[in-house]
Amino acid sequence: TAVIRLEDIMKTYVMGDAVVHALDHVSVEIGVGEFTSIMGPSGSGKSTMMNILGCLDRPTSGQYYLDGKEVAGYSDDELARTRNAKIGFVFQNFNLLPKLSAQLNVALPLVYAGIGEEERLERAKTALEAVGLGDRIDHNPTEMSGGQRQRVAIARALINDPAIIMADEPTGNLDTKSSYEIMDIFKKMNDNGKTVVMVTHEPDIAEQTKRILTMRDGKLVSDEWRADHV
Ligand code: ADP
Ligand code: ADP
Fold it and tell me: Ramachandran region of residue 184, left (φ > 0), alpha (ψ -120 to 50) or beta?
């Protein structure tokens, strides 16, 4: 079953005389448990696609069904609630709070979810152990390597047990070794049933996913299933 279904999505920006179709008639389905990467050159629409898939932005036209429900009719509040319940985000720049410990960074989404402090800290500790940082829970991000910071960010994305993980260039600021470690964590999450969607412009990274969508000039120009996964 499709967890994500885009039907004829357009995202159009008008700036003076210039009209840019950041997304141009994009239709695609992503099934439960898929591990998909979105590739394409700079300016091809990858970020715009992620913003719409992640309910951070709305399309100009077309339908977006998330878990079978069309999200266009949602109010901003409903959109935010849906996002918080269903999607965990991972960013290129980690987006961690530098003055909070790893444990407090990971626990933060649970504050908004109304969970008490003791449970928050316990769950954050467990999540950090799951990404191999059980011995670093008191460290601040500033005391960590890029790969460790990204593992903290992944633990934070998983803390609410979302069905979908969306990652925008998650290995973009990492060396090769850390990139592969991060990809191993995404693979493990996917093996555990999470649907993972990731933007990357690195072919080596995309080749570790099960399906590669390629964009150019706002259009989806190729949809390739990796042979070793079919
Ligand atoms: P990518 O992530 O592949 O680099 P983007 O989705 O960021 O591509 O951008 C796709 C196109 O849409 C580009 O031409 C970009 O300049 C344009 N674009 C993206 N966001 C905006 C915006 N907020 N206002 C105007 N143009 C935008
Ligand atoms: P990325 O490195 O992820 O591709 P971009 O540099 O393409 O990011 O875009 C960063 C942010 O700026 C995005 O949120 C995008 O929507 C916005 N943006 C991109 N191009 C433009 C533009 N021409 N005008 C205004 N905003 C833009």
Answer: alpha
Residue 94: exposure state from Cβ atoms within 10 A (0-12, 13-18, ≥19)? buried
Strands 35-39 and 18-31: unpaired
Long-range contacts of 120-124, Cβ-Cβ distance < 8 Å, separation of 24 or more? 123/159, 124/155, 124/159
**How far is the C-alpha of 9 from the C-alpha of 24, rounded, in Å?**
7
For the chain, state the CA radius of gyration: 18
- Regarding the beta carbon of 12 and ligand 2, being less than 6 Å apart is answered no
Q: What's the token pair of residue 95? A: 């987006």
Paired residues of 69 in beta bridges: 66
Out of 20, 42, 47, give the residue to mutate to test ligand 2, the one with the largest number of ligand atoms within 8 Å of its CB: 47
What digits encode the pLDDT tens for the residues 55-86?
999 999 999 999 999 998 899 999 999 998 99
d(CA 118, CA 24): 48
